[in-house]
Every structure is written in structure tokens, then in C-alpha cells.
Amino acid sequence: MTADVSDIQDSAAATATNLSEFRALARLLRCGIVLLDHQAHLRFASPGACRLLGMDTERALRRQWKGLYPTLKLDALHSLAPGADPLRTRLDLERRESVRQLRLEAHAVNHRDGVHYLLLLKERGRIDATDLPILLASQARVQEHVLGSLLHDINGPLNNFTLTLTLLEATLGRVAPGTLPSDLDARVHRYIDVLKGEAKRLAYCARELSAVSMPLQSSPGRVDFAGLFRDVQRVLRHEATAREIGLDVHVPAHPVWGVGEPGMLRLAALDFLICLMDVTAPAGRISIVVDPEPRESRAIVRITAENAQLPDEVMKEFYRLMFVPDSDYIGLVAGRLIIEQQGGEAVLRADAGEPLGVELRLPASSS
Fold first, then answer.
1. CA neighbours within 13 Å on the CB side: how many for 188?
2. CA-CA distance, 297 to 258, in Å (whole number)?
3. 64/60 Cα distance (integer angstroms)
């Protein structure tokens, strides 16, 4: 069962009898909220909504509302009925020599004066306080999988260490000090080389453990999307094998450079792949294709899952603005939030007759 703030807001809005209750709801949800009457006249706007719409105060927004409303892409608003699926749209709002990349969600609610419309506004390119619970929940879920895979990888080198050290001790115990024959000397050095190789593997696993314990946000920089998805495939290889799921990565031989925060993008990639693995049946296959699109300054990542299926309601959840993090598919939403915060776009595809998939459009590096 998914507990969604949309349910809370519908219930609260349906019972609200005055603007003070809508103001309290705005403080509770901590997001941009606008209330319109049945003629789409502005009744209330929270401070967050005013900021997102480029106004300093509610009074200033009220003065500009008549000219601003047509830019919000709400032509279908009056066909919306209470209890129906909300109207969702994306828009790039040009205000004060800047562009606000917004998500807008409109709900029809019953009010004592008739049907009113509750608008939720959020900025696409920004992670705010309301998004942190879902990101933290997804990070914890990803860490469970990653740490399990790393522990599996660490056991192999440790076993090799134990066996090789036993052989080394047994060999050295057979000869007196300083009289080691040349062939035994060669074997000893070979064992030492094995230990050095295993030490490198352990060091790599230690770095991975350190990486998953790092803070979510890091400094933006260049990211090799080809290398990122090859690394994610390696991390999830053991789990995919245990589930009898094929996991393929098709990337160019050269780096596909983009821009963003490496840790956040890696978390998004893990979010998407783990959720798709959860809904892929044994003998299914997940494929990742990374294509540069230099003319559009984008890199396109297409993730498809054959023999996989999502419940219908997840398609609605994927684009919702407000969540309580207890959904089984929280990773999909967290991945979308991260991709948008990094300046990209995530599209969930579940077309009839086609494999389930996610398409990521990521900003590429100009250099």
C-alpha cells in the first residue's frame, strides 16, 4: 500500500472551510501551493509558490495573475473533477530574466463555494527538503544491495589470501633459512604476486564501501556515463546472476562525458536498475545502451527490461510531486528526482507490446 501526500492533501482540502486552513496545509506540505476558485481566480498562494512563480509576495502575484495564468498550460483544468486523477504538466517559466523549470500538479477539490483547484508547484532542477526522505530511503535500499554484493566479492579474495598464505608457510617450512632452491624461490615470488593482486581487489572493495557511506551530494564535475554504467553492472552482477537475470551494458569504447555529481548519478543508476530487477522474472534480461547525442549536447541512456512488468499505479506514482517513502517502487521516483536535479529528464515507458524501460536524457560535457 502506498501512502501518498496527495491523499492527505485531497482529504484536507475537501474539509477545509477557509483560507487559514489552506495556509496551514501549505506549511505542512512545505511546497508551492496555489488555490484557485471555480473561475481560476487566485484565492491563495503560499510563499513557496510565489517564489517559484517569480514574485516576492502573494499580493504581487495576485496583480500579475491574469497575465501569468495562460503560461501555466492549464487549458484542461476545468474538465478536472474532484477525485479524478490530477492534471500534471512540465513548464519552463520565463520570469525576471531567468527560466524556472517547474512541475505542476492540479487537483480538483470540493469547497463550500463549489469546486476549487489546488495547484502544487515544484522546481525540477532542485532537490528540496520535501525530497530528502525519498532520497535517503532509496540510498538505504541501494546500500543493502551494494553491500551484499561487495561482501560476496570480498569473500573470494579473503579465501585466496588464506589458501596462498598456507601454501607459502608450508613451502618455507620445508627448507632451512638461506638455502631456498631456485624453483621454490620462484614459487614463493609467484605466491607473493598473488597476494599483491588480491590486496588490490580488497583495496577496491574498501573504496566502494567508503563511497556508499559518503554524503548524497558532492561537487559537480565531469562524469563518464559509459564508465558509470559499466561500474554499476559490475556491482549488481552477482545479484543479477542469483536472480537468473541477464544484465548487459552496451557502451562506446570511448568515454561518454557528461556533467553532474558523480555520487548522485551513480545512486540514480542503481535506483533504476534495482527496481527493474525487482520486477523482472527469472530468465529475463535488462539491457543498458548509452548513446552520445552531441548535436543536442545530451547523452541518452536507454534501460529496457524484458519479461518485466510494473503495476499500473506506478506510472502515476513516477511523476507525482509529493511522497511518503514507503512505496515498493521508491527507487524509480528517487532516480527521477536525481536526474531532474542534475539537469536531465527521465521518462518511464510501458507501451503495450514493448519491453518495460526507462530513458534518461543527461546533459553532456561540451569539452
1. 13
2. 9
3. 6
Least Cα distance to 7 among 22, 29, 33 occurs for 29
**Cα–Cα distance between 247 and 285 in angstroms, integer?**
6
Along the 367 residues of the chain, how does pLDDT read in single tens digits? 333 444 434 444 443 445 555 555 555 456 688 999 999 999 989 888 898 898 989 999 999 999 999 999 898 999 999 988 889 888 888 876 778 889 898 999 888 778 999 898 988 877 776 677 777 777 777 877 777 777 777 777 877 877 887 887 777 777 776 677 778 777 887 888 888 888 778 777 767 776 665 555 567 788 999 999 999 998 899 899 999 999 999 999 999 999 999 888 998 999 999 999 999 999 999 999 999 887 778 999 999 999 998 887 777 778 777 655 456 788 888 899 899 989 999 999 888 788 999 999 999 876 5
> Are 321 and 105 spatial neighbours (Cβ–Cβ below 8 Å)?
yes
Alpha carbon distances (Å) from 150 to 89, 156, 202, 231: 41, 10, 10, 13
Cell output for 337: 528526482
